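Deliverable D5.2: sample structural annotation.
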Amino acid sequence: MLGARQNTSGDAITLLRADGGSVTIPLSGPLHNEKAESLARELQSLDNIIASRNALARSEIDAAILSVANESRNDALKELDLALRIAQQTSAGELDDKVLQMAERYSKASKEVLTSQVPTTIYVTTLISTSEANALLHYVSKGDYDAKNLSWISYSEGDKLRIGRYVFRVEPPNLNSGVYEEVVLVVSDPTKRKLTPLRESTK
């Protein structure tokens, strides 16, 4: 139940994971981290918004949008949980900033979904391109990607996709330069995105 996904005591915030477990974010002590605390409060706010919107959902489109927001929220909490567990296992006891940045990215994605204009159709037009010349684009749902079920589907600009989260794969003509993967939220009609692979210089 969405309304029971969080709890705040004097010294910690507890958030419910997708699997029914919980993550406790300390508000004091050696594992306290201001960025983690801020993120936990953002996730509390997202939980309240998702619960409120869920109570008013009336269509398959509403449900799909909320699913995307909720899945992004769950990924944010997963990364926050990982940062806390890593800190508990290291002598320094500090939360990994890169993991926290990933958590913030997922949290921001969830918020963006909830504030975006709801499309009028469950299948929306997508205009996904890349800065990589002559590259091929393939995609798979984020759920299948996480489950290692990598049945990549060839993508052409203008394809209609169901509202959801996808991982897009950019394959350059010269595979020696490596492939690039990025999560894309398909929630607007049309959904426009330009994938720009960022690679370190070989110089």
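Annotation notes: The chain has two domains: 2-115, 123-195. Residues 83 and 96 are 6 Å apart (CA to CA).
The annotation will be released with the project's public dataset once the embargo ends.
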